[in-house]
Amino acid sequence: MTQVSEQVIQEMVQKVLQHVQTGWGGRVSPTPGAGAPPPVSTAAVAQPAAPGTAMLTPTPAINRFGQFTDVNEAVEAAKTAQRALMCRSLAQRKIACDLIQQICRNQADELGRMEYEETRIGHPPHKPEKLLLAANMTLGVEFLPTECFSGDHGITLEEHAPWGVIGVITPVTHSLPTLANNALNMIAAGNALVCNPHPRGKRIAAYGAKLFNQAIHEKIGIDNLICVITDPTIESANEIFRHPDVKLLSITGGRGVVTAAMKSGKRAICAGPGNPPVVVDSSAEIENAARCILEGTSYDNNLLCISEKEAFVEASVFEKLMDAMAAAGACRLNRQQLDELGRICIEPAKDGQHPHANTKFVGAEPQVLAQLIGVSIPADCRLLYGETNFENPLVQAEQMMPVLPIVRCDTFEQAVELAVKAEHGFGHTAIIHSRLVDHMTYMGKMMNTTIFVKNGPSLAGDSAGGEGYGTYSIACSTGEGLTTPLTFTRLRRCVMVDNLRII
Ligand code: NAD
Question: What pLDDT, on the 0 to 100 scale, is given for residue 351?
């Protein structure tokens, strides 16, 4: 039998006593919070580095404020910025988002005017409103939940982690609002982004990004969270699609860019085209329907992807609706005028696709469109409308103009059947005006769209006048729906085995 010396016994007794007294087996008990990032409420705001000194988390390419002509440089800068963001607290991420929102709110008039002066599409008074919407309707870091499983084998957490650098494509229809909304969602989720804006909205995108980056850099010392290719081309978009350090794509645009992104081999969240129909049945409150349709269709001259683009109305209330539209302030065209407008503004279908809008007339004012067919309308008229048949290219194309072609239908079922056909399976948005729950349910099932609005303007489906959050990227093509910070995350699991279940 082994002899245990007096000294060894003394040491063992000492350890047992320490263990009993401290609960830490003689080790020094940890200082609460040491080694962890600062708690959200007390997280310090980093100061920008004094000249000649290093930042806490250095970000090279500082003072570029997100302005790049070269995709590789932009991705590298975004990568560094994203790594820096990961070293910061959630409170600092929230600060970055708050700054973007403040700029959109405080400079909405100037930025909206600049967007219009560059793109020359849409209705100028709506441009600042769209920036306010981007600021006010987007969700933030608080929307990132943690799922937890707790049981005999311990605790497992599932957390929504960032992807890293996201490649972003934005449309000309809302260049800066889309960039601001995407940046808010993506940064809240811990990402950085590299955006290839539409060439006709590139200056406002770059300028907005510069303001956002400057403010973020000044406050938390990180530059280039939002990088913009200042001279964007299809080639630079493809470089972003192919870049190995771009881990996820977020696409907002038409069919061509959605198809290109989906061929890239990367995961792509695609907010693609729509052609939202509105159905009015015989039970509808007609004056309300007319007012709502006018509001949705004419908003920013119908540039929004969710706006009503064509209407299908039951014959028994058809004339009543037509009169109510006039009473609400829209200008009625006759069939010949509407047909002629369709011939001028819509280009024929190519490659088995649908007819499409001539970009020259997208987002034009109704007065400009009326002039094309020799019609003069009052300066305050916001919408042209008229009766036509289902085959009219204005019904078939996603026309994005303040014109509403209206098709007379024998029955409600026929109206829904034509609405389904006109939506072309995009799965985007549909609207109904009805007092019958059965009709709403039937149409909702038949349409199978991402957004289905009842008895309100289409805009209510994206938070403007309806409940819920909003977004400028409705991922109908790939199914994520209205994008949020959560859309731009990947799930990670953290497992503690046989411990930490404290109940
Ligand atoms: P667009 O498709 O012409 O351009 C969108 C973006 O894609 C631009 O940045 C453009 O430069 C780029 N692009 C176009 N073809 C490309 C290709 N082959 N490869 C790489 N990049 C390419 O669309 P637009 O006129 O700017 O915007 C209107 C379209 O966007 C409509 O179809 C509208 O429904 C859609 N949109 C959808 C949503 C949504 O949330 N689902 C939101 C806004 C706009």
Answer: 77
The one-letter code for the residue type at 162 is: P
Distance 171 CA to ligand 1 centre (A): 5
Q: Any idea of the CA torsion for 128, 209, 251, 358, to the nearest 10 degrees?
A: 50
pLDDT tens profile 245-275: 999 999 999 999 999 999 999 999 999 999 9
Ligand 1 in contact with 329 (CB < 6 A)? no
pLDDT class of 71 with cuts at 50, 70, 90: very high
Nearest CA to ligand 1 atom 33: 273
The response to whether residue 239 sits with its C-beta less than 6 Å from ligand 1 reads no
Q: Establish whether residue 482 lines the binding site of ligand 1, counting it when its CB lies within 6 angstroms of any ligand atom.
A: no
Mean pLDDT of 13-32: 47
Cβ–ligand 1 contact at 205 (below 6 Å):
no
Using 50, 70 and 90 to split pLDDT, how confident is the model at 12?
low
Digit-coded pLDDT (tens) for 132-157? 999 999 999 999 999 999 999 999 99
Task: Point out the ligand 1 atom lying closest to the alpha carbon of residue 238.
Answer: 20
Please give the average per-residue pLDDT across 299-328, as a whole number: 98
Residue nearest to atom 9 of ligand 1 (CA): 198
Indicate whether residue 461 lines ligand 1 (CB < 6 A): no
- The 3-state secondary structure of 170-233, one letter per residue: CCCCCHHHHHHHHHHHHHHCCCEEEEECCHHHHHHHHHHHHHHHHHHHHHHCCCCCEEEECCCC
pLDDT score of 3: 55
Atom of ligand 1 nearest to the CA of 476: 41
CB 483 less than 6 A from any atom of ligand 1: no
Percentage of the chain beyond pLDDT 90 is 86
Residue 474 in contact with ligand 1 by CB distance below 6 A: yes
Helix, coil or strand: residue 461: helix
Q: What is the pLDDT of residue 18?
A: 52
Counting Cα atoms < 13 Å in the Cβ hemisphere of 227 gives 32
Rounded to 5 degrees, φ, ψ at 153 are: -100, 20
- Rounded distance from Cα 302 to ligand 1 centre (Å): 15
Task: Give the Å distances, CA to CA, from 87 to 36, 93, 124, 126, 239.
Answer: 11, 10, 41, 39, 28
